């Protein structure tokens, strides 16, 4: 069955890519840095804006602003170049990326903030603050690091009220809601305390 057509319309897109099978998408820091460099090159070539990203072990999440219908072409380039580098470096053959990529176009300002929170919280253990994860752009957005200078989160900061502290509070609120959703419910004879 053919893959479902992606929505290539201009705008904000949540994008994700997974490695195939049980392979990690990143085996070490060299892989992570290589992917970041390739992402920065694609962003520059395609005139995209990277609002945020988070690298996991087996996959990666991106929040992009795309000015035209180039999302499929840019993601093809990023996936092809990273897969080629990864396979050569790790003496691996065959398909590396599980599928082309997944994506969802962001529909509103509230959706933009919620998706940004999802992306930057993706690697955060529920007991850990998201700015601790080195391979997320959140630290750069908060001004705690300058590792990823190509990241431009001004659009999500503006949507959160125009200040980085407002965005931080929004992400913290999303994290608290996520923590509540993952807590086990009260069993028979127990009452959940708020």
Characterization of this structure:
The chain is of the alpha+beta class. It has a single domain, classed as Transposase IS200-like (Alpha-Beta Plaits, 2-Layer Sandwich). Helix content is 41%, strand content 14%. It is built from six helices and four strands, in the order βαββαβαααα. Strands 2-3-1-4 form a four-stranded antiparallel beta sheet, sandwiched between helices. A hairpin with a 3-residue loop joins strand 2 and strand 3 (59-66). Helix 1 packs antiparallel against helix 2 and helix 3 packs across helix 6. The longest helix is centred in the middle third of the chain and has 19 residues, at 71-89. The protein is globular and about 45 Å long. Mean pLDDT is 88; it is low at 183-194.
